[in-house]
Amino acid sequence: MLELLLFTYKDMFGEDFPLAQFEGRPEYEVLNILYDCVQSNLPYDPNRKVEFRIHDAPGMPQ
After folding, report:
1. Cα–Cα distance between 43 and 59 in angstroms, integer?
2. How far is Cα 52 from Cα 24, in angstroms, rounded to an integer?
3. Helices first, then strands: H and E counts in the chain
4. N or C: which end of the chain has fewer CB within 10 A?
5. Which helix (H) or strand (E) holds 32?
6. Comparing C-alpha atoms, which of 12, 62, 54 is closest to residue 30?
C-alpha cells in the first residue's frame, strides 16, 4: 500500500514524497498523510491537517 501511494504521489505532483522527514513515525501516520495528499490533490504541507484517513491502515490503533 505504501509503495502504491508513493508512486501515485510522485505521478500526481512530479516529485517524491518527503519520506525521510517521517523516520521513526508509525507507518499508519505516513499512510494517512500520503492518502490525504492524493485524495485532496494537494502536495504535502506540514501545516495542513489530515482530513482523509485509511481507517484500517496497518498498525493503526483501534
Report:
1. 24
2. 22
3. 2, 0
4. C
5. helix 27-40
6. 54
Residue 33 amino acid letter = I
Locus of grid cell 495528499: 37
pLDDT tens, residue by residue, 6-62: 999 999 999 999 999 999 999 999 999 999 999 999 999 999 999 888 877 766 676
pTM of the model: 0.86
The Cα–Cα gap between 29 and 35 comes to 10
Give the residue among 62, 51, 57 at the shortest CA–CA distance from 27. 57
Give the N- to C-terminal CA distance of the chain in Å, as an integer.
19
